[in-house]
Amino acid sequence: MGIFKKISSFLKDNDKETLKDKLNDSSDLIHSTEYKSKLKVISESENINTDSLEAKNGLDKGLEKTKNTFFSKLGKVLIGKSKVDDDVLDDLEEVLITSDVGVKTTIKIIERIEKRVSRDKFLGSKELNKILKEEIVGILLDQHSNDGSTFEALLPHNPYVIMVVGVNGVGKTTTIGKLANKYKLIGKKVMLGASDTFRAGAIDQLQVWADRVGVKLVKQSMGSDPASVAFDTLKSAKAQKIDVVIIDTAGRLHNKVNLMNELSKIKRVMDKVIPESPHEVLLVLDGSTGQNAFEQAKQFSSATDVSSLAITKLDGTAKGGVVLGISHQLKIPVRYIGVGEKMEDLQIFDPKSFVDSLFR
Ligand SMILES: Nc1nc2c(ncn2[C@@H]2O[C@H](COP(=O)(O)OP(=O)(O)OP(=O)(O)O)[C@@H](O)[C@H]2O)c(=O)[nH]1
Ligand SMILES: [Mg+2]
């Protein structure tokens, strides 16, 4: 089959079960430049949203380990069972807890399933998958507001200033690079500020991302005052009519008081240049640390007003269930998830697509 036909048939079949196999089979094809240009022509002529197709594929791949572990455990619970009884529910509880969903969220899910089981007396184990999925989505939607959001919709101010915080190594700088790329792709002017002046190499690392994405970076030398870098960045952003400003910060301050003081100082300075900024304080958490990510979220939000969360490194871990618990239990919305090290491996967290992907 020629490349044009192959892509066309691949796109037309995109809702079928075979999508995943096709994507795996076609991985060489997908990365070719020929593919990308043909894809554009076909998707435009057939009115197909290839962004959502790519997002779906990225999510499926990123959550592969969590999916496989979760399902092999779930499968074992159901072997030889013809109905959902107390034993099944006990085992299901264990599966959810060992998948890092967290105790509170697990209890809530089990309670909801118990209710349905007592209502529909003859519920078999075959329906459990479907019900489990519906109940998980149900509790997340009760809690969550940014479903259906686009990158555009997440920028209610102009310029929109995001300060990125989190302990060292969680993926702050990488997430900033990925975010800058997403915003640039929708036509926004983006500027980065290198306020992590604490670690040798931090500024260079952000510079690499700025160059890779093709956005501006404001920096000073290592060891300079982070608040002063933030000040310069916002001044310059204002003068250059930048749409999105993203400020990197250092993760490794020795104690909570230091951290609190430093972040408050940066925020105060920002507010002077652009009133009400930063508009968003984005806390980055490493999803592969499971329950530890929960703890970090609690500790950080007591040191500064965190307004949104990004959970990274969901690829390569079986602990992806932690996103469900964090999203359900914390009052702070999970806005982004990181599913790989590459520039495009960042997605807006949408509870429904996330759970759909886990069960696909
Ligand atoms: N697999 C995977 N790796 C990631 C993801 N996000 C970040 N990383 C990797 O995690 C490592 C640390 O990322 P950084 O962005 O440097 O983390 P940081 O929070 O800025 O770290 P410090 O500046 O030391 O505080 C890097 O090797 C990244 O490539 C992700 O979503 N998936
Ligand atoms: Mg960094």
CA-based gyration radius: 22 Å
For the record, the count of structural domains works out to 3
**Distance N terminus to C terminus?**
28 Å
Q: How helix-rich are the residues, as a percent range?
A: 55-70%
For the record, the CATH class of the largest domain is: Alpha Beta
**Ligands bound to this protein structure:** guanosine-5'-triphosphate, magnesium ion
Please give the order of strands in the largest beta sheet. 3-2-4-1-5-6-7-8
What is the strand tally? 8
**DSSP helical segment count:** 16
Biggest β-sheet description = 8 strands, mixed
CATH arch. level architecture of the largest domain = 3-Layer(aba) Sandwich
CATH superfamily of the largest domain: P-loop containing nucleotide triphosphate hydrolases
**What percent of residues are in strands?**
5-15%
Order of helices and strands: HHHHHHHHHEHEHEHEHEHEHEEH
- Report the uncertain regions: 1-5, 13-27
Molecular shape: elongated
In terms of topology, how is this protein built?
Elements lengths: L2 H10 L6 H7 L1 H5 L1 H13 L4 H13 L1 H15 L7 H13 L4 H17 L5 H19 L16 E6 L6 H14 L4 E6 L6 H12 L2 E3 L7 H14 L4 E6 L6 H18 L6 E7 L4 H13 L4 E5 L9 H8 L4 E5 L7 E3 L2 H8 L2
Parallel strand pairs: 1-4, 1-5, 2-3, 2-4, 5-6, 6-7
Antiparallel strand pairs: 7-8
Helix pairs in contact: 1-4, 6-7, 7-8, 8-9, 8-15, 9-15, 9-16, 10-11, 12-13
Bound molecules: guanosine-5'-triphosphate and magnesium ion.
Guanosine-5'-triphosphate binds next to helix 10.
